[in-house]
Each structure stands twice: as structure tokens, then as C-alpha cells.
Specification:
InterPro entries: hSac2, Inositol_phosphatase, SAC_dom. By secondary structure, the protein is α+β, with helices and mostly antiparallel strands. 31% of the residues lie in helices and 22% in strands.
């Protein structure tokens, strides 16, 4: 496998951004020529360069930024930004190869020379300030680390820090961003949730980004002469890389220039800094890890072998854990493979420990000898008995899946492809410190992941009730698909559920058990049974006796022995792990962390026994390092999913639980609650965008709805299922021919145009009637439907249908369209309510076994005109799924008109069967609610509520 460059120097040249690899990376030839790239300012095209390394570095006009690798290229509308690693910290060494955590990144705009040069200068100043802070705060300890580095930036690794939290920092990692929770809650003013520039209703103008164009004629001009798009990119870069707010004094634009800026600039300027700040924040959170020579995306036994030796690292990386793959796509497509550095999100930690065996005990090759973890302090005092010391290294690597990624209440359960939220593969590796090939290396895998059913929980409750979604068949399909995928990757599966056996978790736990039993009754997973164990964690460990989790380990001991672990010696796999324990609670965080730590302890004791050492880690007072390592792992996974450290961390670290730990957990719970209802919505949109799961439209959706679509759930499939279900239930007359079905929005109150909130309903058309069906999208049931006989329809209007003017998207007359069906009341029209899902509000005497039928009108009202109003849903969303099967050239207005035409065609066919006379066209094109009327109807209170929401969520 070719070596990646240890450092990349970035220069802002006149015609493009130059990326020059240095250090021990690959060379083109013996003339010291290194791979180099140019990112063109005009086109953002990446092209290869070649030449001696000194050619660029000797040109004084270039301000070179020394980085440790690239995260990728972030493109937003017509803007692109290079994300590069400026600070790193070594956290481990695996097989002698260093593993680093990203400490900080720089976001460099690629729009012009002036923007790029300013960003590079600013990043260099930030690094220098960090080094000065290190010198004053950490003293000689950091200096020792720095001196241990070679010229190419690699540290001389003898002992690795136990974890990113406790390890000494790299010499360039002095100024590291704080965690997501602290920063977003206002530790830094620029992330304040009540920032004044977000109070205006015009401040959420992300859709305007799509109209910003690159101007190729502005390359190299001074900042004061930059046109609109250059100022936007420059200010965005300032916001991402500078702690100071942008003022006329520090951005090079005079007050007079500020006064005459076009108003349209406000729209993209307000959003781009927010997106870039989050980009810098998430990649500087110490949650991303990389190695130049070791594939962190794969377990130790599946590292690239000789046949793949010539492939670039990203070509052999497991896509399931390759977090910056989408951001690196432009480099891979340009054949710049040496610059593609795969990142994982999760945790990497390491601890070295020594085991003391009593002299004269049995040999390690026969019976295990009595041993204990060596207490170094007592040994230094000479109080240890005569013993033989053996050194070991324990490494923990957790890899978060890129499938169904995101944050706590916004990503729950399973998606259509069988992927579950918060899926994390954790590998525990036992080796000797120097990784001597002739010594055994042990690898033990565990997995956590959300319950593989469709469910959700409200973030607005301290104890949210899980709500199951969709039909039994839909859940069964996703459930079985999930475990088939798991089985192909890991072999046999032992599922461990830690949810409570009482409300509110009981119902979900019962459904999980039910589907597991059903899977086994139908033949299991490709012939293999699914192991299922329901361990009521809170009941078993009540009274804060978390040590009772050992009961679970003891019960599953035969299964754990059957699954074994992986043993590698001299590059040869002597034994393979044949199964995996899949653990879950509700969030797969706190209870799961305690249980996985217990399974990890069991595996370590068993592996040491293979080495001839018999030891009880749970009863050894010198194993605090093991507890801390697993606690650090739990905190890291928790921060990435819930923005706070894990609960029950005091027990994981100390094996003790007291009131102080309970109080700390209460504080973390409050912090989680705040993040769940405030910060997570925009963060989720950014994560989906980084991974390429959504388009730029995700930010437009966020600006309008303050939430975004779930890319793992096929909206088109859900809506088609609703149409099929409604058709099967409501069309009772077999003689009626089904002609078409659509999903649209309807006012909450019947016979009205603007009763908020609008509900998504199903519109069905047969050769005899139009049906308006109100649908329960959680249970896939029809709540009620109204049948309108085609002969009673008097007019169909279509046109502009604006129900709110709070955002630009809602005020767009071209995309906000709908139709209104006017009809006469009559005996052939009816309303039915599903009494199994909704309490009936009509005469109980009219009820039958399933449906409640009532005449909506009295005989004296039969000729009164009523209406059904429908508003078109967006033709597409950020998930780039077409919600309707149509040509991309069809506009919203044309799509609605086609529905009107279908209804009129069915009406005319019915008329022709009864009489030779044809009535005039009933279709009329006119505004339903115009923009002017909508502005009048949108009151100050609605504006106030929206502004408050925007102030909090945005």
C-alpha cells in the first residue's frame, strides 16, 4: 500500500490553490519530486503538477500553510472550501504505525487568491498562537513530544497515551475547539443562539446560495475591489477561521462600502458562515481519527494484504466507516489518490499494562499461572513480591457507521435499507507493546445499534414514549434485512436488549422480541438462528448496583466461547471470530457502554488465559486504566450522538456508584435535553450534507421547516404505500375503476382554505368519485375519508396557493400551488371515520363494526356548495428523491393542472354515459390565496412565533 504524505503545504498562487506534499510521502522520481495539485480558482478543477519540492517553497510571495493532510473539498452551491488538518494529536500506535486524532482544521475558500491567501495567513497565526499557549501552559512535557518528532512530522512512539483525553498533546495542538455541547451553548460568542443577525426574518436566506455565480474575472484583485460573491466567500471564511466578528475595520471594506452593499448579499452571507463554523467545529472536535499507513476502517485481521499492496489506502478502506469519502470524491476523480486520507469518526485509545506472575508458577504454555496487574507505585517502593513481569498493550477502536448517521432523536430505529441509528463497531485489540510479529495479536469485535424497527421519540420530553411506525410487513422486511446484512459481515449474531420491561420502553422491547422470534420461526438468518437475550438493566441493577451486569455475561458465556475471538500471528489468522454480540438500549449509549465494557473484560481475561495468565480483572484493584479506557470510549460515542458525555460514566471508570455520579448524570440529562430540542436540527442537516446523503436543498428545507427530511426513509415509497392502503380500504364498490392517486396537503379543518396546520392526505380518483383520505402516517391507517360523487362537482380551481409568508420558499408563487374542488352537497356524498383509530364525533347509532357513517348534511342543506382544498407538496426534496413520477421539466403548476384534467376527464366520461350533452369545462385557473392575501392573513403573532423559533433553532 503506497505511503501517504505526512504533510501537505498549501500555497495561494495567483492562478490557483497549490497543494504540495512533503516529508516521507511518495516521490515521483529520484529528483526529489513530490506529488502536487492545483485547484483552479475559476473552475475549482483539480489538476496534477510535478516539480522539485523546493520550487514552490522558495517563492517568497507564497504564504504556505503546513498541514497534516486533507479532510476534503466542501462545495456549497457555487462556492468551494478546502478543509485541511492543521493540528493533530497522536493517540495510539497500531503495529508500530501512529494513529492521530484531528485537533483542528482550517477552512480555505477556493474562490480567489485574496480569499485563499487571507485564510492561509489566518490559519498560520492561529497555529503560532497555539504553540505559544502550549509553551506557557504545558512547559517541558510538550517540548519533549515535539523533540521526538522526525522531520516529516511523525512522532517517535515508544509509549502511547491511554486516550485522547488523558494523552499529552502534540506540539501543534494547543488551541483545540471545545466539544460540541460547550461551544454551541455559548462558550464562544460567535455560536450564541441569540445572535442578533438571526433575528431578522430575512436572515435565513440559504436558497439564495443557488443564485450566486462565480466570476472568473476577479482572480487576484484586492479584497476591497471584490464583487459580491468574493465578499460572501471571504466573510464566510472569516467566520469559520477567525474568532473576531467581521467589521469594516478588519475586513478591508470601508463603512461607505458597507452602506451601499446590495440587499441581496444578506441572504447567502448569513447562512454560509453558520455552515462553515459547524464544519470547523465538528472536524475539530477530537472525534475524527486517521493514520497514514494503517487502515482504521478495518479490524486488525482484515488489513490490506500483498495483493492489494499497490492500491491507495482509500481504495481498500471500508466504505461503511469512511466518513470523509464524499468530501474526497473530487480528489479521487482527479486521480489524486495520494492526497485522499480516510477518516473514521468514533474513538481510538490505548493503554500499556504490566502483568506480574509469581515466580515458580506454572509455565504459560501449560496451565495458567496466578497473576495480577502490576501496581507500579508499590513496585517502586519495593513492596512487590518476587515476580516475572510481562508487558501488554490494549487498544480500543470504535468506528461509527456512515449509514443512518446523526443525532439522538433525529435518527432512531431502522431505515429502508436495514441500517440502524448509532451503529458502532468496537474492536478491542490485545498485543505486546512492540507488536512483535511472532507474538499473538487478539482482536475482539462488538457492535451497538438502535432497535431495528421503525420508531421515534419526541425530543420535548424527559421520558419520551417510543412510537412505532408503519405496518407489520414493512417492519418485518427492514428487520430481516438488517440482520441479514449483519450476518454477512459478522457471522452469527447474539442480540442483547437492555431496555426496561415496563413502560414506556416495554412495548418497543416486546415488539423487538416478537420480530426476533418470528425471524427464527421462519428459518432464521440464512439458516442460522438469531440469539436474543432481554436483560432488564435498570431492574437487574437497581440500587446503582451495576456490577450485576455480570449476570448477563455469565448467562451468555457459552455463546461468547462459541463465537471466540480473532488471533493473528506473523500475519496469519490462526483463529477467527465467528459471531458478534449486538447490544442495544434505547439510545445505545449509557447502558450499552456498561454492558460492552463487561463483555470486553470477559474477552480480555480469556485472551490473557490463552497467554497463560489467570487473572480476575474485576477483582483487581490495579485495573483502573481498563475502566477509564472504556469510559473514554463511552463518552466519545455519547458526545457524537447526544452531544454530552455518557451517563453512568463514574461506574465505568471506578466500578463505584454514589449520589455524586447520579447528580452528574442529572446535569448531563438536562444538557442532552437542551441539545435535542435546539442544536441538533441544524447539525443533522450538516452531517447529512457532508456524507452526500442530501443536496444543498437541505438548508432551504431547514430555513422553512427548521427540520429536514430523513434520507434513509423513502418518502416516495411511504406515499405510494399510503395510496395503495387508502385505495384498498375506501373504494368498497368493486364496480368503480381506480384512475389515480396523489398525496397532497389539506387544511386541518374541512371546507376551509387555511386552517393550520396543513395535513398530508391522500387524494384518490375513480370513474365515479373523488376521495379525500386523512391518513395516520405512524400506523399506516386511514383515519377518515370523504367521498365526492363526480356528478356533484361544479368547479375545479387551480393556481397560486400561499398559506404563509414567513419564509421566501413559502412566499414563492411558482412553487406554492394547489387546487380546490367545489361540489354540491347530496346523498351520494359521504364522510366515514375509522373508529379504531379516531373517536367518532357523530351519532353512535350509526356505527358499524369498523366504520362510523353519518350524513354530513340535512336535507335542507343538500344543495349547499362545499369545497375540498389541496395544496401541492414540493416536487423534490433534499434527499434528491422525486416524490412524484414525472418528468423533471414539469412545473408545480403543470403537475396540479394535470390532476385537474384527470378529474374532469373522468367527469366527462360519466356525463357521456348519461347524456349526449357535455357541460362546459369546470376547470378554472385563478389564485386560490394570492401573495397579497397571504400577507394580510399572516399576523404579527405568527411572525413572532417564527422569529422565536428561528432565534432558538437557527
Amino acid at each position: 500500500m503506497p505511503s501517504l504524505p505526512r504533510k501537505v503545504v498549501i500555497f495561494a498562487a495567483a492562478d490557483g490553490l497549490i497543494l504540495q506534499s512533503t516529508g516521507n510521502g511518495p516521490r515521483y522520481n529520484a529528483n526529489n519530486e513530490f506529488p502536487s495539485l492545483r485547484i483552479d480558482y475559476k473552475t475549482n478543477r483539480i489538476s496534477s503538477l510535478s516539480g522539485p519540492a523546493s520550487v514552490l517553497s522558495e517563492r517568497k510571495e507564497f504564504a504556505g500553510l503546513e498541514s497534516y493532510g486533507l479532510v476534503g473539498l466542501l462545495s456549497v452551491a457555487s462556492h468551494s472550501f478546502l478543509i485541511t488538518i492543521t493540528q493533530r494529536q497522536q493517540v495510539a500506535q497500531i503495529q508500530g504505525k501512529p494513529v492521530y486524532a484531528i485537533g483542528n482544521v482550517a477552512v480555505i475558500p477556493t474562490s480567489s487568491h485574496a480569499d485563499a491567501n487571507h485564510a492561509i495567513t489566518q490559519a498560520k497565526e492561529s497555529i503560532l498562537q497555539g504553540e505559544e499557549s502550549d509553551d506557557s501552559d504545558t512547559g517541558s512535557e510538550d517540548a519533549d513530544v515535539s523533540e521526538a518528532e522526525s522531520d516529516d512530522g511523525d512522532a517517535d512512539v515508544n509509549t502511547a497515551p491511554a486516550s485522547p483525553v488523558r494523552g499529552s498533546p502534540h506540539s501543534r495542538t494547543g488551541s483545540i475547539s471545545s466539544n460540541v455541547t460547550e461551544t454551541m451553548m455559548g462558550k464562544r460568542p460567535r455560536f450564541g443562539r441569540f445572535a442578533a443577525n438571526w433575528l431578522s426574518r430575512k436572515a435565513m436566506g440559504l436558497p439564495g446560495l443557488g443564485t450566486v455565480e462565480l466570476n472568473a474575472d476577479t482572480v487576484g484583485i484586492p479584497l476591497v475591489e471584490l464583487k459580491e460573491r468574493d465578499i460572501i466567500a471571504a466573510r464566510s471564511e472569516y467566520a469559520a477561521n477567525d474568532d473576531k466578528s467581521i467589521t469594516p475595520e478588519n475586513d478591508g471594506v470601508s463603512p461607505k462600502d458597507n452602506e451601499v452593499e446590495p440587499p441581496t448579499m444578506t441572504k447567502p452571507m448569513e447562512l454560509l458562515p453558520k455552515l462553515l463554523r459547524y464544519t470547523k467545529l465538528i472536524f475539530s472536535s477530537r472525534n475524527f481519527f486517521f493514520s497514514y499507513d494503517y487502515d482504521l476502517t478495518r479490524p486488525v485481521n482484515t488489513q490490506p494484504s500483498a495483493p492489494n499492496g499497490n492500491l491507495p489506502l482509500h481504495k481498500v478502506a471500508d466504505e461503511l466507516f469512511f466518513w470523509n469519502r464524499n468530501l474526497m470524491t473530487p480528489f479521487a476523480e482527479a486521480d489524486a489518490h495520494h492526497f485522499v486520507l480516510p477518516l473514521i469518526q468514533g474513538f481510538v485509545g490505548q493503554s500499556e499494562f504490566t502483568v506480574a506472575e509469581k515466580l515458580g508458577s506454572a509455565s504459560s504454555q501449560t496451565e495458567p499461572s496466578e497473576a495480577r496487574i502490576l501496581d507500579e507505585e508499590k513496585d517502586a517502593q519495593g513492596t512487590q513480591t518476587a515476580s516475572e513481569k510481562r508487558g501488554f498493550l490494549l487498544t480500543l477502536v470504535s468506528r461509527r457507521s456512515v449509514k443512518r448517521p446523526g443525532l439522538r432523536y433525529l435518527r432512531r430505529g431502522v431505515d429502508d435499507d436495514g441500517n440502524t441509528a448509532n451503529t458502532v463497531e468496537t474492536e478491542q485489540i490485545l498485543s505486546v507493546p512492540d507488536w512483535e510479529p511472532s507474538r499473538n495479536v487478539y482482536s475482539y469485535l462488538q457492535v451497538r445499534g438502535s432497535i431495528p424497527l421503525y420508531f421515534s421519540q419526541s425530543p420535548y420530553s424527559f421520558k419520551p414514549v417510543p412510537v412505532l411506525h408503519h405496518s407489520t410487513d414493512t417492519n418485518k422486511f427492514a428487520f430481516e434485512r438488517h440482520f441479514r446484512n449483519f450476518s454477512r459481515r459478522y457471522g452469527k449474531i447474539q442480540s442483547v436488549s437492555l431496555v426496561d420491561k415496563h413502560a414506556p420502553e416495554l412495548k418497543l422491547g416486546e415488539q423487538y422480541e416478537k420480530y426476533a422470534q418470528g425471524l427464527n420461526e421462519s428459518g432464521g438468518i440464512d439458516g442460522m438462528p438469531l440469539g436474543f437475550e432481554w436483560f432488564d438493566f435498570h431492574n437487574e441493577c437497581r440500587g446503582m448496583k451495576f456490577e450485576n451486569v455480570s449476570r448477563l455475561v455469565d448467562k451468555l458465556a457459552p455463546t461468547l466461547c462459541e463465537f471466540k475471538d480473532t488471533i493473528v500471528n506473523n500475519g496469519t489468522v490462526l483463529q477467527s471470530q465467528t459471531g458478534v454480540v449486538r447490544t442495544n438500549c434505547m439510545d445505545c449509549l449509557d447502558r450499552t457502554g456498561v454492558a460492552q465494557c463487561a463483555f470486553g473484560q470477559w474477552a480480555l481475561e480469556r485472551e490473557l488465559k490463552e497467554e497463560g495468565i489467570d487473572i480476575d480483572l474485576g477483582g483487581d484493584s490495579s485495573t483502573r486504566w481498563f475502566n477509564i479506557l472504556w469510559a473514554d470510549n463511552g463518552d466519545a460515542i455519547s458526545k457524537q450522538y447526544s452531544s454530552t458525555a455518557a451517563l453512568k460514566g463514574d461506574y465505568t471508570r471506578t466500578r463505584k456508584r454514589d449520589y455524586r455520579g447520579a447528580l452528574n448524570d442529572f446535569g448531563l440529562t438536562l444538557s442532552r435535553y437542551y441539545n435535542n430540542i435546539v442544536n441538533d436540527y441544524f447539525s443533522q442537516a450538516c452531517i447529512d450534507y457532508f456524507l452526500g446523503n442530501v443536496s444543498t436543498q437541505v438548508f432551504s428545507e431547514f430555513a422553512t421547516e427548521l427540520q429536514t427530511a430523513d434520507p434513509g426513509i423513502s418518502v416516495h415509497k411511504l406515499r405510494q404505500n399510503a395510496i395503495d392502503t387508502s385505495c384498498r380500504i375506501v373504494i368498497s364498490d368493486q364496480s368503480e375503476e381506480f384512475l389515480g392517486g396523489w398525496t397532497m396537503l389539506t387544511p386541518k379543518q374541512p371546507n376551509s382554505l387555511r386552517t393550520l396546520p396543513f395535513e398530508e392526505s391522500v387524494l384518490l380518483l375513480t370513474d365515479a368519485a373523488v376521495y379525500s383520505c386523512r391518513f395516520d402516517w405512524n400506523t399506516d391507517k386511514v383515519l377518515s375519508f370523504e367521498r365526492i360523487d363526480l356528478r356533484s362537482i361544479t368547479r375545479i380551481k387551480y393556481g397560486t396557493y400561499i398559506t404563509s409568508t414567513l419564509t421566501e420558499a413559502q412566499s414563492d408563487e411558482q412553487s406554492n400551488v394547489g387546487l380546490v374542488v367545489e361540489f354540491r352537497e347530496g346523498d351520494n356524498n359521504a364522510l366515514r371515520v375509522n373508529t379504531r383509530s379516531l373517536r367518532s364525533e357523530v351519532d353512535p347509532k350509526a356505527l358499524d363494526n369498523q366504520w362510523d357513517m353519518a350524513s354530513w348534511f340535512t336535507s335542507s342543506q343538500k344543495q349547499r356548495t362545499r369545497i375540498l382544498a389541496f395544496k401541492a407538496l414540493p416536487l423534490s426534496n433534499s434527499v434528491t428523491q422525486t416524490q412524484r413520477q414525472k418528468s423533471v421539466t414539469v412545473s408545480d403548476t403543470e403537475w396540479v393542472r394535470n390532476i385537474c384534467t384527470e378529474i374532469e376527464r373522468a367527469l366527462r366520461v360519466g356525463d357521456a354515459m348519461e347524456t349526449d350533452e357535455r357541460r362546459p369545462s369546470v376547470i378554472e385557473s385563478s389564485e386560490i390565496i394570492s401573495l397579497a392575501d397571504a400577507k394580510k392573513r399572516t399576523g404579527l403573532f405568527e411572525h413572532l412565533v417564527h422569529d422565536i423559533k428561528k432565534m432558538v433553532w437557527a
